[in-house]
Protein backbone atom coordinates (compact mmCIF):
# COMPACT_ATOMS: atom_id res chain seq x y z
CA UNK A 1 0.00 0.00 0.00
CA UNK A 2 1.21 3.51 -0.76
CA UNK A 3 0.86 6.50 1.54
CA UNK A 4 -2.25 7.47 -0.37
CA UNK A 5 -3.84 4.07 0.22
CA UNK A 6 -3.51 2.85 -3.37
CA UNK A 7 -2.37 -0.70 -4.00
CA UNK A 8 1.13 -0.76 -5.48
CA UNK A 9 3.82 -3.38 -5.96
CA UNK A 10 6.64 -3.92 -3.49
CA UNK A 11 9.15 -2.42 -5.92
CA UNK A 12 7.04 0.71 -6.38
CA UNK A 13 6.59 1.02 -2.61
CA UNK A 14 10.34 0.79 -1.96
CA UNK A 15 11.15 3.22 -4.79
CA UNK A 16 8.56 5.69 -3.52
CA UNK A 17 10.08 5.73 -0.02
CA UNK A 18 13.58 6.21 -1.42
CA UNK A 19 12.56 9.33 -3.37
CA UNK A 20 13.41 12.73 -1.93
CA UNK A 21 11.20 15.79 -1.93
CA UNK A 22 13.18 17.83 -4.45
CA UNK A 23 13.02 21.28 -5.96
CA UNK A 24 14.53 22.39 -9.26
CA UNK A 25 16.50 25.59 -8.70
CA UNK A 26 15.99 26.64 -12.32
CA UNK A 27 12.21 26.79 -11.96
CA UNK A 28 11.82 26.72 -8.15
CA UNK A 29 9.18 24.02 -8.59
CA UNK A 30 8.81 20.70 -6.84
CA UNK A 31 9.91 17.67 -8.82
CA UNK A 32 7.39 14.84 -8.99
CA UNK A 33 9.42 11.59 -8.81
CA UNK A 34 6.59 9.67 -10.50
CA UNK A 35 7.09 11.62 -13.73
CA UNK A 36 10.83 12.20 -13.92
CA UNK A 37 14.04 10.43 -13.04
CA UNK A 38 16.32 13.30 -13.99
CA UNK A 39 18.36 14.79 -11.17
CA UNK A 40 20.80 17.58 -11.92
CA UNK A 41 23.35 19.51 -9.90
CA UNK A 42 20.73 22.25 -9.46
CA UNK A 43 18.36 19.97 -7.55
CA UNK A 44 17.89 20.34 -3.80
CA UNK A 45 16.62 17.64 -1.46
CA UNK A 46 14.53 20.03 0.58
CA UNK A 47 13.20 17.31 2.91
CA UNK A 48 16.74 16.57 4.13
CA UNK A 49 17.48 20.29 4.49
CA UNK A 50 14.24 20.91 6.38
CA UNK A 51 14.66 18.10 8.91
CA UNK A 52 18.36 18.81 9.46
CA UNK A 53 17.69 22.50 10.16
CA UNK A 54 14.61 21.72 12.28
CA UNK A 55 16.50 19.22 14.42
CA UNK A 56 19.42 21.63 14.76
CA UNK A 57 17.07 24.36 16.01
CA UNK A 58 15.41 21.85 18.35
CA UNK A 59 18.83 20.94 19.78
CA UNK A 60 19.74 24.61 20.33
CA UNK A 61 16.41 25.44 21.98
CA UNK A 62 16.59 22.51 24.40
CA UNK A 63 20.15 23.25 25.47
CA UNK A 64 19.44 27.00 25.69
CA UNK A 65 16.43 26.34 27.90
CA UNK A 66 18.43 24.07 30.21
CA UNK A 67 21.31 26.58 30.37
CA UNK A 68 18.90 29.36 31.38
CA UNK A 69 16.98 27.31 33.96
CA UNK A 70 19.84 25.20 35.36
CA UNK A 71 19.81 24.85 39.12
CA UNK A 72 22.31 23.71 41.73
CA UNK A 73 19.59 21.89 43.65
CA UNK A 74 18.07 18.59 42.56
CA UNK A 75 17.91 18.81 38.73
CA UNK A 76 15.00 17.55 36.68
CA UNK A 77 15.38 14.63 34.29
CA UNK A 78 16.01 16.78 31.23
CA UNK A 79 18.76 18.79 32.96
CA UNK A 80 20.33 15.56 34.21
CA UNK A 81 20.34 14.12 30.69
CA UNK A 82 21.89 17.26 29.20
CA UNK A 83 24.55 17.37 31.91
CA UNK A 84 25.42 13.72 31.30
CA UNK A 85 25.77 14.35 27.56
CA UNK A 86 27.97 17.41 28.13
CA UNK A 87 30.12 15.53 30.64
CA UNK A 88 30.46 12.59 28.25
CA UNK A 89 31.54 14.79 25.34
CA UNK A 90 33.85 16.87 27.52
CA UNK A 91 35.67 13.79 28.81
CA UNK A 92 36.23 12.55 25.25
CA UNK A 93 37.58 15.93 24.14
CA UNK A 94 39.87 16.06 27.19
CA UNK A 95 41.24 12.58 26.41
CA UNK A 96 41.78 13.09 22.68
CA UNK A 97 42.45 16.79 22.08
CA UNK A 98 45.71 17.92 23.70
CA UNK A 99 45.89 21.53 22.51
CA UNK A 100 43.92 24.52 23.78
CA UNK A 101 40.82 25.59 21.90
CA UNK A 102 37.48 27.15 22.78
CA UNK A 103 35.84 25.68 19.69
CA UNK A 104 36.55 21.94 19.81
CA UNK A 105 34.33 21.03 22.80
CA UNK A 106 31.25 22.95 21.54
CA UNK A 107 31.86 21.56 18.05
CA UNK A 108 32.09 18.00 19.36
CA UNK A 109 28.89 18.47 21.40
CA UNK A 110 27.06 19.90 18.38
CA UNK A 111 28.23 17.10 16.10
CA UNK A 112 27.28 14.34 18.56
CA UNK A 113 23.82 15.62 19.50
CA UNK A 114 22.89 16.82 16.00
CA UNK A 115 23.90 13.59 14.28
CA UNK A 116 22.18 11.54 17.00
CA UNK A 117 18.93 13.50 16.54
CA UNK A 118 19.02 13.12 12.75
CA UNK A 119 19.72 9.40 13.09
CA UNK A 120 16.84 8.98 15.55
CA UNK A 121 14.34 10.00 12.86
CA UNK A 122 14.87 6.48 11.52
CA UNK A 123 12.86 5.10 14.45
CA UNK A 124 9.63 6.81 13.37
CA UNK A 125 7.06 4.60 11.57
CA UNK A 126 8.12 4.55 7.94
CA UNK A 127 4.74 5.71 6.59
CA UNK A 128 3.81 8.24 9.29
CA UNK A 129 5.31 11.52 8.07
CA UNK A 130 5.11 10.69 4.32
CA UNK A 131 1.38 9.98 4.80
CA UNK A 132 0.84 13.30 6.58
CA UNK A 133 2.92 15.15 3.96
CA UNK A 134 0.90 13.69 1.08
CA UNK A 135 -2.60 14.02 2.54
CA UNK A 136 -2.27 17.38 4.30
CA UNK A 137 0.36 19.22 2.29
CA UNK A 138 0.06 17.42 -1.06
CA UNK A 139 3.77 16.61 -1.28
CA UNK A 140 4.75 13.90 -3.79
CA UNK A 141 7.54 12.37 -1.66
CA UNK A 142 9.26 12.72 1.69
CA UNK A 143 12.29 11.20 3.41
CA UNK A 144 12.78 12.06 7.06
CA UNK A 145 16.31 10.79 7.87
CA UNK A 146 18.78 13.53 6.84
CA UNK A 147 21.84 11.34 7.48
CA UNK A 148 20.53 8.80 4.95
CA UNK A 149 21.11 11.51 2.33
CA UNK A 150 24.72 11.56 1.13
CA UNK A 151 24.55 15.30 0.36
CA UNK A 152 23.96 16.04 4.07
CA UNK A 153 26.74 13.80 5.36
CA UNK A 154 29.18 15.11 2.74
CA UNK A 155 28.31 18.70 3.70
CA UNK A 156 29.03 18.01 7.36
CA UNK A 157 32.26 16.19 6.52
CA UNK A 158 33.40 19.08 4.32
CA UNK A 159 32.83 21.45 7.22
CA UNK A 160 35.17 19.34 9.36
CA UNK A 161 37.63 19.12 6.44
CA UNK A 162 37.84 22.91 6.15
CA UNK A 163 38.45 23.13 9.91
CA UNK A 164 41.30 20.62 9.51
CA UNK A 165 42.91 22.82 6.85
CA UNK A 166 42.28 25.96 8.95
CA UNK A 167 43.82 24.56 12.14
CA UNK A 168 46.78 23.06 10.29
CA UNK A 169 47.65 26.42 8.73
CA UNK A 170 46.87 28.33 11.95
CA UNK A 171 49.11 26.16 14.16
CA UNK A 172 51.89 25.27 11.71
CA UNK A 173 51.70 28.06 9.17
CA UNK A 174 51.24 27.69 5.44
CA UNK A 175 54.83 26.49 5.02
CA UNK A 176 54.27 23.85 7.68
CA UNK A 177 51.13 22.68 5.88
CA UNK A 178 53.05 22.34 2.60
CA UNK A 179 55.91 20.52 4.35
CA UNK A 180 53.46 18.02 5.81
CA UNK A 181 52.26 17.22 2.31
CA UNK A 182 55.68 17.05 0.67
CA UNK A 183 58.22 15.90 3.28
CA UNK A 184 56.31 13.11 5.03
CA UNK A 185 56.76 10.20 5.44
CA UNK A 186 60.05 10.34 3.48
CA UNK A 187 62.05 13.42 4.49
CA UNK A 188 64.02 13.90 1.27
CA UNK A 189 63.32 16.22 -1.70
CA UNK A 190 63.52 13.35 -4.19
CA UNK A 191 60.42 11.77 -2.59
CA UNK A 192 58.27 14.90 -2.80
CA UNK A 193 56.00 13.50 -5.58
CA UNK A 194 55.52 10.25 -3.65
CA UNK A 195 54.87 12.09 -0.39
CA UNK A 196 52.40 14.41 -2.08
CA UNK A 197 50.39 11.48 -3.41
CA UNK A 198 50.42 9.59 -0.10
CA UNK A 199 49.64 12.58 2.11
CA UNK A 200 47.11 13.98 -0.37
CA UNK A 201 45.18 10.70 -0.36
CA UNK A 202 45.40 10.56 3.44
CA UNK A 203 44.04 14.12 3.74
CA UNK A 204 41.21 13.65 1.24
CA UNK A 205 40.21 10.30 2.77
CA UNK A 206 39.19 12.03 6.00
CA UNK A 207 36.01 13.72 4.73
CA UNK A 208 35.25 10.68 2.58
CA UNK A 209 35.46 8.33 5.55
CA UNK A 210 33.38 10.66 7.72
CA UNK A 211 30.59 11.12 5.21
CA UNK A 212 30.28 7.68 3.61
CA UNK A 213 30.46 5.73 6.88
CA UNK A 214 27.55 7.67 8.37
CA UNK A 215 25.56 7.68 5.13
CA UNK A 216 26.07 3.96 4.45
CA UNK A 217 24.96 2.83 7.89
CA UNK A 218 21.90 5.07 8.08
CA UNK A 219 20.83 4.35 4.49
CA UNK A 220 21.07 0.61 5.15
CA UNK A 221 19.07 0.96 8.36
CA UNK A 222 16.34 2.96 6.63
CA UNK A 223 16.22 0.48 3.77
CA UNK A 224 15.70 -2.44 6.15
CA UNK A 225 12.71 -0.70 7.74
CA UNK A 226 11.28 -0.08 4.26
CA UNK A 227 11.82 -3.72 3.22
CA UNK A 228 10.12 -5.01 6.38
CA UNK A 229 7.09 -2.79 5.73
CA UNK A 230 6.98 -3.66 2.01
CA UNK A 231 7.33 -7.43 2.30
CA UNK A 232 5.34 -8.35 5.43
CA UNK A 233 1.60 -7.82 6.01
CA UNK A 234 0.79 -5.01 8.43
CA UNK A 235 -0.23 -7.30 11.30
CA UNK A 236 3.13 -9.13 11.39
CA UNK A 237 5.57 -6.29 10.69
CA UNK A 238 6.26 -5.75 14.40
CA UNK A 239 7.89 -9.20 14.61
CA UNK A 240 10.88 -7.84 12.69
CA UNK A 241 10.58 -4.06 12.99
CA UNK A 242 10.63 -3.97 16.80
CA UNK A 243 13.78 -6.12 17.23
CA UNK A 244 15.48 -4.21 14.42
CA UNK A 245 14.51 -0.85 15.97
CA UNK A 246 15.96 -1.92 19.34
CA UNK A 247 19.21 -3.00 17.67
CA UNK A 248 19.18 0.11 15.48
CA UNK A 249 19.29 2.35 18.57
CA UNK A 250 22.84 1.08 19.11
CA UNK A 251 23.76 1.94 15.50
CA UNK A 252 22.21 5.40 15.83
CA UNK A 253 24.25 6.32 18.90
CA UNK A 254 27.39 4.54 17.71
CA UNK A 255 27.45 6.42 14.41
CA UNK A 256 27.00 9.76 16.19
CA UNK A 257 29.81 8.82 18.57
CA UNK A 258 32.14 7.75 15.74
CA UNK A 259 31.51 10.98 13.81
CA UNK A 260 32.30 12.99 16.94
CA UNK A 261 35.43 10.99 17.80
CA UNK A 262 36.84 11.21 14.28
CA UNK A 263 36.18 14.95 14.23
CA UNK A 264 38.11 15.39 17.49
CA UNK A 265 40.95 13.11 16.38
CA UNK A 266 41.36 14.77 12.98
CA UNK A 267 41.39 18.25 14.53
CA UNK A 268 43.83 17.07 17.21
CA UNK A 269 46.19 15.79 14.53
CA UNK A 270 45.87 19.11 12.69
CA UNK A 271 46.70 21.03 15.88
CA UNK A 272 49.89 19.15 16.71
CA UNK A 273 52.85 21.49 16.31
CA UNK A 274 55.53 18.96 15.34
Order of helices and strands: HEEEHHHHHHH
Terminal residue distance:
61 Å
Give the class from helix and strand content and strand pairing: mainly alpha
User: What is the residue-mean pLDDT, rounded to a whole number?
Assistant: 89
How much strand content do the residues show? Answer: under 5%
| Shape call | globular
Helical residues, percent: 55-70%
For the structure shown, list the relevant keywords.
mainly alpha, 274 residues, single chain, 3-stranded antiparallel β-sheet, 8 helices
Short account of what is shown:
It contains 8 helices and 3 strands, in the order αβββααααααα.
Outline the fold blueprint.
Elements (H helix, E strand, L loop, with lengths): L9 H8 L4 E3 L4 E3 L11 E3 H24 L7 H20 L7 H17 L7 H9 L13 H33 L9 H40 L6 H34 L3
Antiparallel strand pairs: 1-2, 1-3
Helix pairs in contact: 1-7, 2-4, 3-4, 4-8, 6-7, 6-8, 7-8
Would you kindly provide a written description of the structure presented here, covering whatever features stand out?
There is one protein chain. With 274 residues, the chain is mostly helical. It contains 8 helices and 3 strands, in the order H-E-E-E-H-H-H-H-H-H-H. The protein has helices at residues 10-17, 46-69, 77-96, 104-120, 128-136, 150-182, 192-231, 238-271, and strands spanning 22-24, 29-31, 43-45. A hairpin with a 4-residue loop joins strand 1 (22-24) and strand 2. The chain starts with 9 loop residues before the first helix and ends with a helix. Residues 1-5 have low confidence and may be disordered.
